[in-house]
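Researcher: Next entry: alpha-L-fucosidase (Gossypium barbadense).
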Amino acid sequence: MAKFWYLVCMITFLELSKLAISRPEQVPTPPLPVLPLPTFSQLKWQQRELIMFLHFGVNTFTDSERGTGKENPSIFNPVGLDTKQWVTVAAEAGISLMILTAKHHDGFCLWPSKYTDHSVISSPWRNGHGDVVQEFIDAVKTHGGGGIDAGLYLSPWDRHDKRYGHDLQYNEYYLAQLQELLTKYGSVKEIWFDGFKGNEARNMSYYFSDWFAMVRELQSSINIFSDAGPDVRWVGNEKGSAGNTSWSTINSTLLSIGNLSVLDYLNTGDPKGTNWLPAECDVSIREGWFWHKSQSPKMLSQLLDIYYKSVGRNCVMLMYRPIQPDSYQNLIFID
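Model: Predicted structure:
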């Protein structure tokens, strides 16, 4: 009888043990991603919403929009320059990225480049020892509160340099300056390229693929902007307005830098696009890009409408902000 009850107890124990041991729950495997997908850098960029483009250079002192390349560097003397204020104002406005025009079409460099004397080296500002790019980068690091990153624009069209129009020589010059900017000043989160050049410009081919390759080699987490990406595309106008539907996807094989025949396609993107290439909506807070005393900022209602037509349509709003030429009362950059 004792053996019987022993067997009953053992069987009961084994059955209870089976119930106590939980089996791995069978769950469905996750589906494969629907391509294309953004990179980490692209995703972070799209979350910025508002970014800023600072236009500053010899045009600021000549009351012009497009320099001739013949300006005397001596006119560049911003004695009241205060990059800390630029960044402080941007931080208060919720800006997360500030892009500086390191060189505009006039060819004047805001940093002391080793490859030309058409720069701050030849100006009276800081007795020829100034560096706007360095002061800008330092201000972003120290006064951006950790929430602002730096970007740079190096104009491909150079109306000053004699190498322009000679493909090999100028592309080597451009690559050398690009290397300076991306190795000397630390982390840059967006580099801005365009294919614009005036009708009077000399015939010139830009080696964009080589430029982009160097950018990738020097800074892997940077976003490259141009009409055709490869990371961020132009929205197709300078009004800050995206299409009613603006897709982050597009077929990049249909795009090329400087191609004005695809502006509508850039504006809307493509729901069946094979490349993740979100749009950036650039617009000036004033009529022009550079500072002009005769111009005033757009009304708040206009800026709000632009915000809805850019950020509200799945894009990032890039606001051009001209810098005032000079002030002793700390009013640079404030309208």
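Model: Note for the record: Residues 227-325 form one domain.
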